[in-house]
Design goal:
CATH topology: Rossmann fold
Structural class: alpha/beta
Number of helices: 10
CATH architecture: 3-Layer(aba) Sandwich
CATH class: Alpha Beta
Order of helices and strands: HHEHEHHEHEHEHEHEHE
Number of strands: 8
Shape: globular
Strand order of the largest sheet: 3-2-1-4-5-6
CATH superfamily: NAD(P)-binding Rossmann-like Domain
């Protein structure tokens, strides 16, 4: 395994843990909100589990990036909810049911609510990132309660998740090489940080020593 690929072990392990919490069955419909590096790996893992995957992001550059490498991701749809009816796309791919699982990547109240709006009865909604400490959720508790929708946090990863992530990368079941969008030497690290913060599509930036 290359050092570049090895940089994905820990983040992929976080995705492994989150996808386990989804309790996906083959044929389920899964909505992934956020198509950065974590969202893309979440989508790849869900496809390995046999799910129909809809990948969503409000950043059109990220949508285009994911669409361009969809031969590796294999998402069933890659959409921008600002220009597409996301709930309609989810219903189309789920036979009108809604998403059986949702992984919400962004630290955003709006993204979390969007996940709830697209969820099917009995769905597991995974909070992949924490909301800000001061954020107050205005949750539709009526829907959560009567449709038995579960809102589940997934933080970090454990040793078993790391081992599974390592094996997925080692065997090539998850391919990450095309997710590296920037590579810099240690002497170039100021440039790397600036471009990661302000440049075009930055999915995964690596600094080599």
């Amino acid at each position: 395994m290359s050092f570049e690929t090895a940089t994905f072990i820990e983040p992929l392990a976080c995705s492994v843990k989150a996808v386990k919490k989804c309790q996906i069955c083959a044929g389920d419909t899964v909505l992934i909100i956020g198509s950065g590096v974590m969202g893309i790996m979440n989508a790849m893992l869900c496809k390995l589990a046999g799910a129909c995957v809809i990948l969503s992001d409000i950043d059109q550059k990220r949508v285009d990036f994911a669409d361009n490498i969809n031969n590796i991701i294999n998402a069933d749809a890659v959409v921008n909810p600002l220009t597409t009816d996301l709930a309609g796309i989810v219903k189309k791919h789920s036979g009108g049911r809604g998403a059986d699982a949702v992984i919400v990547g962004p630290s955003s109240l709006q993204a979390t609510q969007q996940g709830i709006d697209c969820a099917a009865p009995g769905a597991n909604i995974i909070s992949f990132m924490s909301l800000p400490a001061c954020a107050n959720m205005n949750v539709d508790h009526f829907k959560l309660y009567f449709q038995e929708i579960n809102l589940i946090p997934s933080y970090s990863c454990g040793p078993d998740d790391v081992k599974e992530a390592y094996n997925l990368l080692l065997t090539g079941k998850i391919k990450v090489e095309n997710l590296i969008t920037g590579q810099y030497t240690i002497d170039e690290f100021p440039k790397a940080f600036i471009e990661a913060a302000t440049g075009g599509v930055n999915i995964k930036t690596i600094i080599t020593f």
